[in-house]
Write a structure and sequence with these properties.
This protein is α/β, with parallel strands linked by helices. It is 30% helix and 20% strand. The chain contains 10 helices and 11 strands. Bound molecules: S-adenosylmethionine (SAM).
Length: 280
């Protein structure tokens, strides 16, 4: 018999979540709006406030990278339910099997309860309208190999699997292509959140062009990472003391290519890192 790709697991406290058997990783969603989605992505990026204040003539744009079972996307939709601003959510996903699995277990998972029709439409048609002011688009395929056909975002939820298991999503090429999406002179102020605290990943993000700071704690993580295309949007940018620790770290070489290999940073990469504007 073929082995199932996903399993329903019971978290401490009784809520259900999904485990990818192939990646050996459990997604941090429980019943109700996911705590991680709220703390790490939505509140930290002041999503409702920024979307509510949005004055642009175009919609306020969110990129949801690694849609998975849609915990972050649904939490964002619920958070934005009462604002009047037009919002576009662009979700990127290589394999929607996990969302289809979640849909079959929407009652146990809780947070999808009531959203089944919207998710069904998103899967079938690639676009859905969860609220009159919110358009939700699905971009299928390998994000790390695409040119991204979506307008420049103000907010990015960056949520692939971990670098050890999903290396192509954390390499210099992927963060550089993300940087091109937000670095045009007319691009809106943008922030991007994710759960990593890895030195080599932060070095990779900085070398790709991003400003990088320490993010809020969530779950069992004491710190995470937040990025921006504007230094002033970061409350705690990585500073000189972080930079001096990079030199002696055994896990600070930027991630290149599609294999996860770590090591100390080379003198050439360290020289480029030191020259990043955020350390001036
Ligand atoms: C941790 S799960 C995402 C959880 C989800 N954000 C949530 O809130 O429920 C990671 C997702 O990233 C997707 N992913 C991994 N590599 C990808 C790639 N190269 N392109 C697009 N999606 C990818 C996986 O298929 C998986 O669904």
């Amino acid at each position: 018999m073929e082995r199932a790709a996903y399993e329903l697991v019971t978290l401490k406290g009784g809520a259900h979540s999904i485990r990818s058997v192939e990646h050996g990783e459990t997604m941090h969603i429980g019943s109700g709006p996911g705590q991680e989605a709220l703390e790490l992505h939505i509140r930290q990026q002041r999503l409702a406030e920024r979307a509510g204040e949005w004055q642009g003539s175009d919609p306020f744009v969110i990129w949801d990278i690694g849609l998975g079972p849609a915990g972050n996307a649904i939490t964002a939709i619920e958070e934005l339910g009462t604002i009047g601003t037009r919002v576009e959510i662009h979700s990127f996903e290589i394999d929607t099997a996990v969302l289809e699995f979640a849909l079959r277990h929407s009652k146990e998972l809780g947070y999808l309860d009531g959203w089944e029709g919207v998710i069904g439409q998103l899967l079938a048609e690639g676009v859905a309208f969860p609220r009159p002011n919110i358009q939700w688009r699905l971009h299928r395929g390998d994000f790390s190999r695409q040119t991204h056909a979506a307008p420049a975002p103000s907010v990015i939820f960056f949520d692939p699997y971990s670098p050890a298991r999903n290396a192509e999503m954390w390499n210099l090429e992927t963060f550089s292509s993300l940087w091109s999406a937000v670095s045009a002179p007319d691009a809106p102020p943008c922030t991007m959140t994710n759960y990593t605290r890895s030195t080599s990943v932060r070095v990779t993000m900085l070398l790709a062009g991003w400003f990088v700071g320490t993010g809020v704690p969530t779950g069992d993580k004491d710190v995470t990472t937040i990025l921006s295309n504007r230094l002033h949007l970061l409350e705690k940018p990585l500073d000189q003391s972080w930079l001096s620790r990079v030199r002696s770290s055994t896990n600070a070489s930027p991630l290149r290519g599609r294999n996860y290999e770590r090591g100390p940073i080379s003198p050439q990469d360290y020289a480029r890192l030191k020259d990043r504007p955020q350390f001036a």
